[in-house]
Inverse folding.
């Protein structure tokens, strides 16, 4: 049983530059998958290869068992929302949405009716006869989405579609896109470099770096059990502390900053005695106190900066030359002062081991 | 509340006008004043009244010349479009370097005085010129005359005016967002329908700009049609020149000039209402 969308050994080089190393990926029907990574990591190139705008140098892509290799972009039946929406400026919203149907020889009357139904689904009824320039950024986004979905594509590809919107509108559109995707059940790939967007929307996140997939997993899995240092660093805030394994059997390690540490068991990679690793502790899993806390592992740090966000705050301190970030509830921050020395503590479940 | 009744401009607002003054005075003295004089002559010479306009608008000779002028301008515009559009498209698809090379060739020809280019065509198309020679060599016994025909004047005018068309269309083509084309392809648009439904409408402003410029310049074109064209198919500017230089009919010539000017202004006005004149130079 193969997956709905399958990328096998997809490689893409431009001259001497390797844009994609060797991409293997399977996506199930109806899944909402996010390609996450910094710019130049290969996520957009992968999207363009799937869409057919770039040919893979090697490797194969299949949808529902059918190879896409010899199909032109026109023949792939893939809906795409571009970063800048790419709406036709000379066509009204309805005409834009009708366009893919028009190309499929759907008559004008039936096609425009379907286009208007689609506009209604994306919450734009009443805007059918406006030109793109008469619509706001969010509304243009919705038209682009309707246009990419109206012809019932096998795949929906979204290339950083929310980048140009302001924060509130962006959150609103995240919910909206997710709602429409669920309702239509269309298999969706969403490209972004915004990790919160990826976390909140995806069934699965594929983290790209340097033309390779670092990890492909459910959002929480990626957050709590990152496969590599890169993923740990890129997703969420992290404290990455070098350490040496002292006893793999009892899960003991020693770190210049934390002292002797017991690390969590679940999902940690295989380690052996004497191996150098990084310990990951998320800032929200650390607690600050004047005195060592009982029942927790403790270490000392000196507070350097406090960044207050209102409902919470990030306290940045130093412990033997290593920066430590602690996220504390906003109410706790009033008793802390920059320059104070305090204890930070954690439980063994909060310590995750990274070997790569 | 914010309304201010003021007859004197603010101090700061005087500067732009001062900077504009030399040009404005120059234009007023050497363009506006003579133009008004032409207008006055058209209704005062020889007798005061609208007799000149009556002749220009009803006389069969003048009607023929005006129709010929519009016909030629239209033909030249269409030819410029047919030549210019593919060339502009080529420029927008090749590498930046190649596009610059083509642009340089076009502007080099553009910068050459059009009198020189007109004489060059006379040499090329003349009875002892290379074109006739080639036709004879190829076995055409009695080659048709090329020079002093509608063909030669149209050809030369297309050559002289095509750069206006090419630059206008190229500017627009260059600005087309490639993701619009990709997006159309992803929705199933192939070559011909992609061109008809997406590319052509997107380049329409360039076509409109180029066409209006070429048409309007062509309406008043003097040297090339006079030197290369057939005397029997005179254009308006040539006839105006004749009236004034040969028949000393200043009034009649002025009336024709004013009619030509008004027609040109009407065309530009229509264009302005549809697209906005400022687009012509953007």
């Amino acid at each position: 049983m193969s997956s709905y969308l399958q990328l096998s050994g997809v490689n893409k080089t431009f001259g001497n530059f390797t844009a994609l190393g060797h991409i293997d990926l399977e996506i199930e029907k109806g899944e909402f998958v996010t390609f996450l990574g910094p710019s130049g990591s290969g996520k957009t190139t992968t999207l363009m290869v799937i869409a057919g705008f770039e040919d893979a140098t090697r490797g194969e892509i299949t949808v529902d068992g059918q190879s896409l290799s010899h199909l032109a972009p026109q023949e792939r039946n893939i809906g795409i929302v571009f970063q800048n929406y790419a709406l036709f400026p000379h066509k009204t919203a309805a005409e834009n949405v009708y366009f893919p149907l028009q190309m499929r020889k759907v008559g004008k009357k039936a096609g425009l009716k379907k286009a208007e139904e689609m506009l209604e689904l994306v919450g734009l009824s009443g805007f059918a006869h406006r030109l793109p320039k008469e619509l706001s950024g969010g509304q243009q986004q919705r038209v682009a989405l309707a246009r990419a979905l109206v012809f019932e594509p096998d795949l929906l590809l979204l290339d950083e579609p929310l980048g140009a919107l302001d924060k509130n509108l962006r959150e609103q559109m995240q919910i909206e896109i997710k709602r429409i995707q669920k309702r239509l059940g269309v298999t969706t790939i969403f490209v972004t470099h915004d990790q919160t967007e990826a976390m909140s929307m995806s069934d699965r996140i594929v983290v790209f770096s340097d033309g390779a997939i670092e990890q492909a997993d459910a959002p929480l899995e990626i957050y709590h059990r990152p496969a590599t240092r890169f993923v740990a660093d890129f997703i969420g805030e992290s404290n990455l502390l070098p350490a040496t394994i002292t006893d793999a059997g009892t899960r003991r390690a020693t770190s210049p900053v934390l002292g002797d540490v017991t690390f969590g068991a679940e999902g940690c990679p295989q380690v052996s005695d004497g191996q150098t690793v990084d310990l990951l502790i998320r800032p929200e899993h650390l607690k600050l106190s004047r005195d060592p806390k009982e029942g927790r592992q403790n270490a000392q740090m000196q507070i350097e900066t406090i960044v207050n966000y209102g409902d919470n705050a990030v306290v940045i301190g130093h412990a033997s030359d290593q920066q430590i970030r602690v996220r504390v509830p906003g109410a706790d921050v009033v008793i802390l002062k920059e320059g104070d020395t305090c204890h930070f503590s954690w439980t063994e479940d909060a310590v995750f081991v990274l070997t790569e | 509340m914010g309304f201010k009744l003021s007859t004197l401009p603010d101090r700061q607002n005087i500067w732009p006008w001062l900077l504009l003054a030399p040009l404005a005075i120059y234009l007023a003295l050497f363009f506006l004043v003579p133009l008004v004089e032409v207008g006055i002559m058209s209704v005062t010479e020889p007798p005061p009244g609208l007799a000149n306009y009556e002749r220009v608008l009803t006389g069969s000779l003048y009607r023929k010349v005006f129709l010929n002028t519009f016909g030629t301008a239209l033909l030249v515009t269409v030819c410029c479009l047919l030549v210019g559009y593919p060339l502009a498209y080529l420029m927008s698809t090749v590498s930046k370097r190649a596009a610059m090379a083509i642009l340089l060739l076009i502007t080099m020809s553009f910068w050459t005085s059009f009198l020189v280019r007109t004489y060059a065509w006379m040499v090329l198309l003349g009875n002892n010129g290379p074109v006739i020679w080639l036709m004879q060599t190829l076995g055409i016994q009695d080659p048709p005359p090329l020079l002093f025909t509608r063909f030669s004047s149209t050809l030369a005018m297309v050559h002289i005016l095509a750069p206006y068309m090419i630059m206008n269309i190229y500017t627009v083509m260059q600005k087309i967002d490639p993701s619009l084309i990709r997006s159309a392809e992803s929705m199933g648009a192939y070559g011909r329908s992609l061109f008809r439904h997406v590319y052509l409408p997107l380049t329409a402003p360039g076509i409109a700009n180029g066409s209006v410029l070429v048409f309007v310049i062509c309406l008043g074109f003097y040297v090339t049609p006079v030197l290369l064209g057939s005397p029997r198919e005179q254009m308006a500017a040539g006839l105006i020149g004749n009236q004034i230089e040969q028949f000393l009919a200043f009034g009649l010539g002025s009336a024709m000039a004013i009619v030509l000017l008004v027609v040109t202004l009407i065309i530009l006005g229509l264009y302005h209402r549809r697209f906005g004149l400022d687009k012509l130079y953007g």
Observations:
- The domain at 5-230 of chain A is CATH 3.40.50.300 (Rossmann fold).
- The mean pLDDT of chain A is 91.
